[in-house]
Amino acid sequence: MSGSPAAVVVYITCTSFAQAEALARHLIDERLAACANIIPGMRSLYRWQGVIESAEETVLILKTAAACVPALTARVKQLHTFTVPCVVAVPVVDGSAEYLAWIAAETVGEGPEVRRSGSPEVRTP
Questions:
Q1: Interatomic CA distance for residues 47 and 104, integer angstroms
Q2: What is the per-residue pLDDT across 20-40, written as a single tens digit (0 to 9) for each?
Q3: How do the domains of the chain map onto residue ranges?
Q4: How far is 103 from 31, CA to CA, in rounded Å?
């Protein structure tokens, strides 16, 4: 891939599984993200207002189009309970062309067309 990445993975920390799921649902519904993965039980250590803190948090990982990151970040800041929420976008340098096309379609393109053919996230046992 050359130039700017078309897709990014966005890493967000949340206070709980419920907060992560609520954020994910808002962002996917608003087409700011195509997909979310929620990982509970993460331990964060960080300095906040001069004190080293430790907290159990939940990781929210989103897949989205790079063009959506500014609006996604602004929306997370509106919805999140943290004063300074962690919202970090990491460029996707390569991947399955079909999956990357699906991300683009679900965020900045014609989502229903792709949905009819099935989400690449669906797994069978």
A1: 36
A2: 999 999 999 999 999 999 999
A3: 7-116
A4: 10
> How far is 55 from 125, CA to CA, in rounded Å?
35
pTM beyond 0.85, yes or no: no
* Whole-number Å distance between alpha carbons of 65 and 102: 10
The pair of three-digit structure tokens given for residue 12, joined into one six-digit string: 């967000």
Query: How does pLDDT run across 82-125, given as a tens digit for each residue?
Result: 999 999 999 999 999 999 999 999 998 654 444 334 444 443 33
Fold of 7-116: Alpha-Beta Plaits (3.30.70)
For CA atoms 108, 110, 115, 119, the dihedral sign is negative
Bridge partner list, 35:
63
Beta bridge partners of 38: 60
